[in-house]
From TrEMBL:
GO terms for biological process: phosphorelay signal transduction system; regulation of DNA-templated transcription. PANTHER family: C4-DICARBOXYLATE TRANSPORT TRANSCRIPTIONAL REGULATORY PROTEIN DCTD, TRANSCRIPTIONAL REGULATORY PROTEIN. This is Two-component system C4-dicarboxylate transport response regulator DctD. Residues 12-123 form the Response regulatory domain. One of its GO terms (molecular function) is ATP binding. It comes from the Bacteria.
């Protein structure tokens, strides 16, 4: 059941009392207040009813034949808030009940309105607890988010809490952070934890937009193509690198966000859109506003809530943990043993500034595993290879291709073009080597 459905569902109560008239009276009271009620005359069937009925609160008499309502407080099974009532109540009993975990205690005769207030408060607290647990479980299962949020630093804990808090609201979110800190993965986590999770998540790289093609791509063309706003209808539109938009595009985007409507090319009729805006920037937007490159009114529309992603060098305690995580991941991917980090390699990791943040560390971990697969390598060597390769493409496929190209080229040079020796050194077959040389567009004659 989604969070939205959970909020719309009427509260459910399990009422336990051996007095039939009292059971019916309580049932009528709660039913008139919009509750759904299930009745029991004793506590013997409570655990079964908890599984079947899943109540939001239990209302039980204390003194009943066959068992006391106080026993409900000691069930092994997790229970919703328990409100106890008794005609024989006294202060010691109330103190015992509250200490044992009762939500509240009422003595008969009780004020019906007070009982309803207590039951409503108990049920609301139960729903809130359930929603929080459900969000945390969903967060833990998110694909990819652990690659960014793995760590024990206080900064990471704050980001995790913000994702959970902000995902349940419709407010626009601005994610700021350096390149490689995982802004898009955080945006996807916010979407996946929201009540829009079953609807589209559309990502736009604003750095690729030109003024001439913006409206076609974003607003679409009448009877021809849907723009990204309509593609994201009901879901989330992620505006990555929003600081790179030129002023004309910023103005058009602001109007669409303010009025929640777009006009496709070729149409004179605006269309309303229902999207949640999540944006990201690796540039400080305050500086961009001060320099006149970013509209202040657009900034306020995008930044109702802000998540600042910490860079890797500010959380040194997480670096070794992250490296071990990625080494294990790539060792499984490449079907080899994960290399053990020695003291020198750990010192190398901690001494590095990691300008590429988690993305750079992940690439170094992959190269370290691939080197270990051939029986050698080190963290420092993997870092040097990163520098020699220059700007590694951001996608995994391109990064691996670039790395393979460099390794094969070096092996060809080392073994002076003897392809059997090259294949053996790389741990692959001769046919596979030939296929990779063709695929990677390597010219053997230029390497020798």
């Amino acid at each position: 059941m989604s969070d939205a459905e959970q909020k719309r569902r009427p509260f459910r109560a399990l009422v336990i009392d051996d007095d039939k008239e009292m059971r019916l009276s309580l049932s009528h009271l709660l039913d008139a207040a919009g509750w759904r009620v299930e009745l029991l005359s004793g506590i013997t069937q409570v655990e079964q009813k908890l599984n079947q009925w899943q109540p939001d609160a239990i209302l039980s008499d204390v003194r009943m034949p066959g068992g006391s309502g106080l026993e409900l407080l000691h069930l092994e099974q997790q229970t919703p808030p328990i409100v106890l009532i008794s005609a024989h109540g006294d202060i010691p009993m109330a103190v015992e009940a509250m200490r044992a975990g009762a939500y509240s205690f009422l003595e008969k005769p009780f004020d019906p309105q007070r009982l309803l207030r207590i039951m409503n408060n108990a049920a609301e607290r139960h729903r809130l607890t359930q929603n929080t647990q459900r969000l945390q479980e969903r967060l833990a299962k998110l694909s990819g988010i652990d690659r960014v949020l793995l760590g024990q630093s206080p900064q990471l804990q704050t980001v995790r809490e913000q994702i959970i808090d902000f995902s349940s609201t419709p407010a626009p979110v601005l994610i700021s952070g350096e390149t490689g800190t995982g802004k898009e993965l955080v945006a996807r986590a916010i979407h996946d934890l929201s009540d829009r999770a079953d609807q589209p998540f559309i990502a736009m790289n604003c750095a690729t937009f030109e003024a001439s093609s913006f409206e076609r791509m974003v607003f679409g063309v009448q009877n021809e193509s849907l723009g990204t706003f309509m593609q994201a209808e009901g879901g989330t539109l992620f505006l990555d690198e929003v600081a790179s938009l030129n002023p004309d595009i910023q103005a058009k985007l602001l109007r669409a966000i303010e009025h929640r409507e777009i006009t496709p090319i070729g149409s004179d009729k605006p269309q309303s859109v229902d999207v949640r805006i999540v944006s990201a920037s690796n540039e400080n937007l305050d500086d961009a506003i001060a320099a006149g490159r970013f509209r202040e009114d657009l900034y306020y529309r995008l930044s109702t809530v802000v998540i600042d992603l910490p860079n890797l060098r500010s959380r040194k305690d997480d670096i070794v943990l992250l490296m071990q995580h990625f080494l294990a991941h790539y060792a499984t991917l490449y079907e080899t043993a994960a290399p053990e980090l020695d003291a020198e390699e750990i010192a190398t990791l901690l001494a590095h500034d990691w300008p590429g943040n988690v993305r750079e560390l992940r690439n170094v971990a992959e190269r370290r595993v691939l080197s270990a697969r051939r029986g050698g390598g080190s963290i420092s060597a993997s870092m040097r290879l990163d520098n020699e390769m220059g700007n590694v493409p951001e996608t995994l496929r391109e990064a691996v291709a670039s790395f393979e190209r460099s390794l094969i080229a070096k092996a060809i040079q080392t073994h002076q073009g003897r392809m059997d020796a090259v294949a053996e050194a790389l741990g692959i077959g001769r046919r596979t080597l030939n296929e990779k040389i063709v695929k990677l567009n390597l010219d053997k004659s230029e390497l020798l």
